[in-house]
Amino acid sequence: MKEIKIEILENSDEIKKEFSERFLLTWKEFKSENNELVKLMTGKNYTLSSELIHFYERMAISKECTFESALKRLKNKEGYVLFISEDEKFPECEGIFIDGVIHKGKVFEAKASSLADLIEYEWNEFMKNEDFIRSLPLDLYVFDEAMKKVIVFTGDTAFYDEETDEGEIEVETRLCLSCKSRMSKKH
User: Fold this and answer.
1) What is the radius of gyration, based on Cα positions, of the chain?
2) Can you give the pLDDT at residue 60?
């Protein structure tokens, strides 16, 4: 696998704040939209807070998509993209491994097609060997500077129907999500 250049952005806090405003439900909105879940979890003495759920659970999901279609969109994108992992307060936040150091709570930038190649390579290697050391977390949020959409690569898998010469078969693939911004870009 060819090494790619990943930059850590200086203005990470500012970008993360805008990302949250554009894509994530506030905690109040989440509780309102998921009232039954919140009641169930708190009724079982489970601590539920915004730090204990994935970003994608607080997003308005536009659609699920296959790993292959998410990769294709990223490979066909010109220029650079930004990406983040889960919030550093999230207990399972893996961060991003660069030059021997795990970075959490930062925003990163890389060439879109190179990032797609790395995502694909690391997922395929991880599926063959769960002890494979990845530089990218399983849950990864990729977007461009316009912040109109985000592609979410999750660590979960899903089943999709695929057409083959022998007919339709069910195929397991990485679950990916596409989410639209909740607002237009601020100027």
Assistant:
1) 17
2) 78
